[in-house]
Amino acid sequence: MIIEALKEKNGIITSSYCRSNNIPNIYLKQLVEDGTLVKEGRGIYASPETFLDDYYIFQLKYKRCIYSFLSALYLHGMTDRNPVKKEVTVYKGYNVSGIEDDCIFHYVTKRFYDIGITKVKTMFSNPVSTYDKERTICDFIRNRKDIDPEIFVKALNNYMKSRDKRLDRLFEYAKIFRIEQKTYELLEVLHE
Questions:
Q1: Predicted local confidence at residue 133, as pLDDT
Q2: Are 32 and 71 in the same domain?
Q3: For a surface tag, which of 46, 117, 137, 175 has the fewest beta carbons within 10 Å of its beta carbon?
Q4: What is the 8-class DSSP label of residue 7?
């Protein structure tokens, strides 16, 4: 059952998957000992020939980290820049001290944390949680002074060119974040 699940899950399996499918964890341990699996983290296993998907593995380890900013742009195909560091958003009070990956953390209140969370597929077809395009654009506008100007302009231009943009949702989020006027002015300039 584990080997079949590995085929369906791009070579990666978790102990929580095994528990929910009534597969005793002892089998995972045995497969690690005989070299069929490699332990990638607490409760995360992969077949040795699997090319590891960093974005997916990271999120299996840290479910509360939502990809945002440049990482979200990358996952949505709105930039050709592969971020050097993962950028994630967590809610204030979330303990990031145990996260060994080199990340840039953004903190928001719990009230804003869930707004715009969506699932996208990585380049290896694994699902990860990220903010949707509209939330990402709002985050860029809200933090404009901290964003590289070239990346900022490209992000807005790519958003406006995208076929699946949702301007109604963008302005709904802009209202929640109290950046309606800024958003309107920036998009008006781009439209001209």
A1: 96
A2: no
A3: 175
A4: H
Q: What is the pTM of this model?
A: 0.86
127-131: strand order across its sheet: 103-108, 86-91, 66-67, 127-131, 117-121
Nearest alpha-carbon partner for 131 in 76, 187, 181: 76
Q: Count CB atoms within 10 A of the CB of residue 85.
A: 12
How would you class 37 by CB atoms within 10 Å of its CB: exposed for 0-12, middle for 13-18, buried for 19 or more? buried
| 57 inside domain | no
Give the SS3 label for residue 116.
coil
Q: List, run by run, the mean pLDDT of 10-residue segments along the chain (192 residues).
A: 84 88 88 90 87 89 94 92 90 89 91 96 92 97 92 91 93 96 88 61
- The verdict on 71 and 47 lying in the same domain is no
